[in-house]
Amino acid sequence: MDKITFEDFLIIMSYDVLKNQSCIEIEFCIDNSTIYQCSWLGKTVGRNSGEVVYWFGLTADGTQAYEFDSLEQLLSANVFCGKSIRGIWRLVSIIAIDACDTLERLSFYLKTP
């Protein structure tokens, strides 16, 4: 598991999934949490809308799945026991980005204009 800066996370999430016909999937956990040990977040193109969708899949049972129309909504949503991912970023450990090694995939996003 790796730590990345919040600024690098924002760079990843700024990647144009519409233009590049792709999606972003980040597997992560929250340090010292028994609830959020295999959680996901991402950015994709909505199946029905064709618009960008930001999402969380926080628990394996699917009871904590959320979709948002903007990155700001995702960053501000108080879905972690009343706190936002922005507020707890120091506790976020990245397991994988796009099913790849975190630091390898991060370098791709940092090099992409």
Folded structure, characterized:
With 113 residues, this protein is α+β, with helices and mostly antiparallel strands. It has one domain. The chain has helices spanning 6-13, 71-76, 85-88, 102-111, and strands at residues 24-30, 39-45, 52-57, 65-68, 92-97. The mean pLDDT is 93.
Descriptive keywords:
113 residues, alpha+beta, five-stranded antiparallel β-sheet
Helix-strand blueprint:
Elements: H1 6-13, E1 24-30, E2 39-45, E3 52-57, E4 65-68, H2 71-76, H3 85-88, E5 92-97, H4 102-111
Antiparallel strand pairs: 1-2, 1-5, 2-3, 3-4
Q: What does the overall shape look like? A: globular
Number of strands: 5
- Taken together, the total number of domains comes to 1
Q: Please bin the fraction of helical residues.
A: 10-25%
| First-residue to last-residue Cα separation | 26 Å
Return Rg in Å.
13 Å
Low-confidence stretches: none
Largest sheet: 5 strands, antiparallel
The averaged pLDDT comes out at: 93
